[in-house]
Amino acid sequence: MALPILLDCDPGHDDAIAIVLALASPELDVKAITSSAGNQTPEKNLTQCSAYADLA
């Protein structure tokens, strides 16, 4: 049974790797991805998070 998780990220390029790896892992069940404050606006963070999720 996969471990259910929630990812919280900023999401920079380092978090992009974490998002793609988590979504591709059969051992993890990503229930949600939240975007916390980083160096970008919330809108830019959402756009980046969505793009990373689409890669997986």
UniProtKB/TrEMBL annotation:
One of its GO terms (molecular function) is uridine nucleosidase activity. Its EC number is 3.2.2.1. PROSITE patterns: IUNH. GO terms for biological process: purine nucleoside catabolic process. Residues 5-48 form the Inosine/uridine-preferring nucleoside hydrolase domain. Pfam families: IU_nuc_hydro. GO terms for cellular component: cytosol. Keywords: Glycosidase, Hydrolase. PANTHER family: INOSINE-URIDINE PREFERRING NUCLEOSIDE HYDROLASE, URIDINE NUCLEOSIDASE. This is Inosine-uridine preferring nucleoside hydrolase.
